[in-house]
Design goal:
The complex is a heterodimer of chains A (349) and B (447). Chain A is an alpha+beta fold and 349 residues long. Chain A contains 12 helices and 6 strands. By secondary structure, chain B is of the alpha+beta class. The chains are: A alpha+beta (349), B alpha+beta (447). Chains A and B meet through helix 7, strand 5, helix 8, helix 10 and helix 11 of A and helix 6, helix 7, strand 6, strand 14 and helix 10 of B. Strand 5 of chain A pairs antiparallel with strand 14 of chain B.
Amino acid sequence: MADKESDKGKRPEGVLYDFIAKMNIGLTLSGIVIICCIIALSVKGLNYGIDFKGGSIFHYRFDGDISEDKIRNLLKNSPLKKELGEVVVQRVLSEVDLGIDLIGEKDKVEKADGDKGGKDRSTAKKKTSTFIIHTEASKEVSESEDVEPKLQALFQTIGKFQKLQRQFIGPTVGKTLQTNALWALIIAIIGILLYISVRFEFTYAVAAVVALVHDSLIVLGLFCLMEKEINIGIMAALLTIIGYSLNDSIVVLDRIRENNRLKGRMPFDARVNLSLNQSLSRTINTSVTTLLAVLSLLVLGGVVIYDFALAMTIGVVVGTYSSIFIVSPILVKWYYRDHPNAPRVNESI
Amino acid sequence: MLIVVVALVCAVASAPSLRFPQLFTPFMGSYADTYRDKKLTLGLDLQGGLDMVFRVKSKNPDNVKNDLVKAMEILRNRIDLFGVANSSIQQQGNDQIRIQIPGIGEKDQRRIKDIIKTTDLLTFKLLRPGGVSTNVFALMGRKGEDDEVLQQVPDPKKPNQDLPWYLLKKEPEIGGDALRHARISFGQMGEPEISLEFNRKGAEKFAEITKRLVGKRLAIVLGQKVYMAPSIKEPITQGRAVITGKFDIEEAKKISAILKAGALPAPLQKLSEITVGPTLGHDSIRKGVNAALIGLILVLVFMLVWYKGSGIMADIALFLDMLMMVSLLLFFGATLTLPGIAGIILTIGMAVDANVIIFERIREELRLGKTVRASIDAGFDKAFVTIFDANITTLLTAIVLYIFGTGPVRGFAVTLSIGIAVSMFTALFVVKVLMDIFYGSSKTISI
């Protein structure tokens, strides 16, 4: 006979957190945040990168400390103005600027031909400025002329530079990608709804989906506010976050499912509360391990992967939050709407 | 029994990646041979290189399929003749061709783009009066709707020359499809030349052109580069021309071979082009690997601290995870991209999740008063369902990403999927085996 103490899944300290009693606080908080995100998204819109909009980016690194304006003026006053059209010049923050310079990047100098010797030990304190230059889609379609060599001729007037990357995405490709991304999201969500409905119950599926929509909206909203560019990598991050948030939600739902079987006589809300407490350590620990990995990527991964890692970090944190504070309240409220006369521990539901 | 099976599977699965420093060659025999040449393929974003997607724009839409196949063949020839290794030319969708050339430096990138893009490889274009200058912007200022500005090809005999630019009429006077031959010959001083011989119709046209343009200069353009722009002193009726001067024998061979390979059956519309310089690639690899190592250490330490003895077993399982993941990537010939590395890092974090679920379960069972043996069994049993459901959903999103994604995103989906599968295996089997060995008959458990 299992004794009552362990029955309640008491923490060593003997405390049972009453999530359900406080569930309205969580829901309200989330509600406010979600509304803010929706407002931000409608007003500001997402900053789509060239993956979705089409266009060109030229990613170049210059020696010395060059300002954005210098590059901007250079391009505006050049004969290339017509070729390039509307140009956006953006300085790329280096690891130093982002505050993640743990390896002492600012003291290193990258040789232009990729020093294969591995560790570059030269410590000449050379400052470099890295820029991304965006141009519109329509301007690069000319078949016979390539603007890049001319751009490079222009850059030579500033000083030494190094080409890091160049991308040209035609306008049709962008549209295709938008469609694909949308379909990917839709299919993923439908698949999830189906799978959880089968393994659990339809209401559980809805609760889980609401949680992950909540997570996605928050990540997108924050990215919108931070004016970060949404490209295909961020889409991938978003889908991964959905998968991960689901992971967490399932851990909780699984325990609820089990307690439904084992403790059928307990009132539903108490049952859910118990489940939450019992799964607390699993949820938090799994998130901690994933967070450790993702933070490592954020801090050490460099600027190219920074935005992706940021999305993942926010996603993991919010995903954990939503598993506890969104999924269960929805289940509880739905249950009591369907079964208004079922017993309950908390009068306020 | 289970122990033996599991151990065997792990050994076989991990062996290939242990071969990286090729330490175990003597033991592996023929099995080793399959892996001898397999290196980890690096994606474009890690190696640097060129990635282009073209649409075949056939005049007659029914011909698209044929044109596409022919075009791929011709492009393959051109690229091979150019001498790059590891290039990949693939069909994408119904009417698109994707060309990927990794590890190619910037100079070569430029040349090969030129060689790929043009339908008319060799063209003769009219030079506008006074249209030669080293100041490209002076020419750009004069450029009209019908004109274009192209640069001269570098002369191997004059490496430091400031390359002049030419202002040309965009529409070619005559193109390479009028050629019958393109041959290497040698000039008076033994320098390589390319002799062109036009076919009958071409010769007639060429005669007409040169008659019309006496006193003007006709630029010979190969790809997007001007090779020479001789003055036309008199009409050329023989249908022959010679290109001299700006190449060595290697280049001459290449050019004539490319001209022989033929013109494309239909124009190619460039849909997208991504070039990554090698610096960015090296940077990314270095940082990615750093992040992975630090992440790994952090997670290992966490598991050790939180779950003590059992944590060590989870850590061993994590090591095996990494080894097996790399082996599987090698085995499938998968390409590693930067998001792929991110996928590996993510897997490091998520791989232990299964272990966490199992361990927490075991702790609960212990609290209920069960014996060590019983708790372990119950823990694994009950946790299985949870792990299964949770991982399947992540796998689902990884599959969706693979289907709808391209290049780097697919790399991410692949590493994530492999990681999930492998970590499920190690968590459920390897750790179980280890725990059976160490705690199977003991009264206490470190967890």
